[in-house]
Design brief:
single chain, 94 residues, alpha+beta, 3 helices, flat
């Protein structure tokens, strides 16, 4: 066994949202980046994409529509055939 100590850090959703808003302000993404589509890879990225979408809509045109598309590929399902992985995708147009 290795003698590695684990350093656990917990962050809140509010803190993540503040970091995204700070990055948008610092890089002026609301002025330079006007997406009509945000694509995420994996289900875990969807909350962050929705936060980015909300911040961009709030700073730019609140009436604008940004489509969010999330895609995932499940290769680790014990019951799934490894030669036929399951693929899912979800869209949100709010």
């Amino acid at each position: 066994m290795s003698d590695v100590s684990l350093d656990w850090r917990f962050v809140s959703q509010h803190y993540i949202q503040e970091l995204i808003a700070k990055a948008v302000d610092q890089h002026q993404l609301d002025l330079k980046f006007k997406p009509s589509l945000i694509v995420t890879a994996g289900e875990d990225a969807l909350p962050v994409a929705r936060m980015l979408k909300a911040i961009l809509k709030g700073k730019g045109n609140p009436g604008s529509s940004i489509l969010t598309l999330s895609s995932s590929l499940d290769l680790y399902d014990e019951e799934a055939n490894p030669y036929n992985p399951s693929h899912g995708y979800w869209g949100n147009n709010s």
